[in-house]
Amino acid sequence: MRAADVMTSEVITVGEDASVQDAARLMAEHGISAVPVVDRERRVVGMVSEGDLLHRAETGTERRRSWWLEMMSSTNQLAGEYVRSHSGSVKDVMTRDVVSVTEETAVGDIAILLETNRIKRVPVLRDGRLVGIVSRANLVRALAMTINERPSGAEADDRAIRDRLLAELKAQKWAEVSPANITVKDGVVHLWSSYYSDQEKRALVVAAESIPGVRGVEDHMRPVAAYLL
User: Fold this and answer.
1) Range of the structural domain that residue 75 is part of
2) Which of 141, 161, 162, 197 lies 20 to 30 Å from 25 when distance is taken between CA atoms?
3) Which parts of the chain sit beneath pLDDT 50?
4) Of the candidates 139, 122, 143, the residue with the CA atom closest to the CA atom of residue 34
5) Are 103 and 212 in the same domain?
6) Pair 100, 123: CB distance under 8 Å
7) pTM of the predicted model, to two decimals?
């Protein structure tokens, strides 16, 4: 099952020149917790979520720090927080580094993206332009629709590959990989885990390549330090 099979096609968006009040009004009226920010060609330039609007001067919820924390904070950080809590422009408060997928992205991979990035939705792009959005709710509905389906031959093979790889890694003392960080689609193993060393990363790839039936390995792994920044 792919993003195109489960995504919401009619996406509520705001323009990059919209006001913060416009974004908040749309979210309240449609009962959604975030909206993509798009340019005139429907290219996603950011995302505005409830979290981005949590600390606002209008509601008296702007971030306040104790004097000693304020002394430890850089002027750039303090200035940035002021802009985000006082600016009336969406472009100043939106999250710019937006995780996205294509219509062909497997729903299993989307679930991992949502979990590892601690987000609730991802925009779906075609040639860089917004065509849909997949949320956690979309994935839950997809599960409800397939709960009684038996796996096809290809899906059964993918499941067998994944089970063999998990068993192999479980037997290795160096391997500390969560099952949620390994997905298999059409014989291709996708590795999403973090790693402590290049040797450990290479060992994970080699273990995947050694499983019978594996057609390829896609490395999405990041060093542990990347999660600590």
Assistant:
1) 3-145
2) 141
3) 226-229
4) 122
5) no
6) yes
7) 0.57
